Amino acid sequence: MPTPHYGQPRYRVVADQLKAKIDNGDWLPGELLPPENALRHEYRVSRGTIRQAITLLREVGLVATAHGRGTYVALPRRQRHDCKTTPALLNPRHVPADNDLAALFDIEIGSLLVESRSIVRANDHTESVTYTYSLPRQDVPGVEQENAGRKIGDR
Fold this sequence. Notes:
The chain is 27% helix and 25% strand. With 155 residues, the protein is α+β, with helices and mostly antiparallel strands.
């Protein structure tokens, strides 16, 4: 379904078309968008173009992406006023770094990190849960520091 773009970057044209589908109610809040590959074929563009279009929509708050779940339509701004975000450091705890986290933090696999979560709720149901990882610090409330810098299995 290519359309003339009249000098606009192709990702903006695709983003406008995706936005129109959201605005028209083709995709409702919380509903998953089709996978990138399906969108790529529908709009006859590269994967990078689809990703840029989705990034643009994410930046303006129309969609959200959850790792392992996909991209879904975000709650309209007018419905967000009753959302309550819990404190950023909810039940912080030490967890061992897996392969991905170890690579991101440039630490050994199994080294301890501080994991905390943030929960967004609206209308008595959970909208999202975000896990945040950081290196152990002395000023993280609620996390014992005796294990900081140690790996699981160290005594």
